[in-house]
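B., you asked whether I could sanity-check this one before it goes into the benchmark set. Here's the sequence:
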Amino acid sequence: MDKNRQVIELVIEHALENFDEKAISLAFQSQASAVSKIINLFLLSHFSGERLNSGIAKDINLFSQLAFWIRFKSAGSIHVGYAPYKQALVESVHEQSGSKQVDIDFHVQKLARNLSELNQHVAPDLIGYWLQANKKLLNELAVSDDLSWDIEIENEVSAPQITRYKVDASFRYLYQFLNIKEHINSVELYENKYFVKGLNRPQYVAEQSETHQTKHQVRQKIKQIINRFHSIHTQTGDNDFLTRALFKAIAKKAVLDVYEINKNERNYSDYAHKLKQLKNKPSTILEQVS
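And here's what the prediction gave me:
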C-alpha cells in the first residue's frame, strides 16, 4: 500500500470529481478527508477483497467505486447509486526481460504526478482520453499482463473525434511532462486556451473569445511546440522507454487536424513528417528488449 499510495490517492481523487458531494459528506464529512478514510477502510483487518460481490472490482478500480465505499462505511445506511468515474494510473513493479531492469516505481510516480497536475488545468474527459491513448504503456507498467480497463467519458462523440481527443490529451500531457514552456518563448496565448480548465465538453478549451489573429498566433505556437518535441526526440536515448512511449501517442498527422493546421499551410508536410518520426525508435519495454 505505501508503495502505491500515490497512485491510489489519484484514482480516488478522480472519482470524487464526478460523484455526489452530499453523499460523500454524509459518509466521510468532506471530500478532502474522503481519500485517506477510504484507504483506511481498505486497511482494516476485517476487510477482505475475497468476499466482495461479483459486481465489485477486485483491482485498482475498487478505489474508484465510491458508492461501494459509502455503503461499506455506513453499513448501508446511506443509499447512493453508482456514478461515473475515471480510472487513473495503475500499480507498479514489472520485471523487465533479460538482464535489463527498469525502475517501474519511479516511472509510475512520475506519470501520476504529471497526470495529477494536468488534471488541475484540463477538463475531466481529457484525463480519460489520455488514459485510453496510453493504455499499452500503462498495461506494461502494471503488475498484471492483462489489465482490464473501463474508462468512462462523459460526452459521447464519434470514432474520429475520439482519435482527435486522445491525440489532443497526449499532446497537452507531453507539453507539461517535458516542461516545454521553459524552452520556448511567449506561451501565454497557448496555455490560456489549452491549460485553463473550462467546461467538460468538446472542444475542452477555456471559455474565451478568440480573434482571427489570436487563433493564428496559437497555431504558430503549436508549430514551435512540435519543433521542440522533434528536437527532444532526436536527443532521447533508446533506453528512455517512458519518454518514447509518450511521444508515440502523438506521432500522428491527426495532431495537425486537431489544431486546425491546414494542408495548404506552408511547411505542412514538414510538420507531418516530424510527427511521424516520433515513433521511429523503441517506445515500450517489450520493444526495447525484444
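One thing to flag: Residues 212-235 form the longest helix (24 residues). Otherwise nothing jumped out at me.
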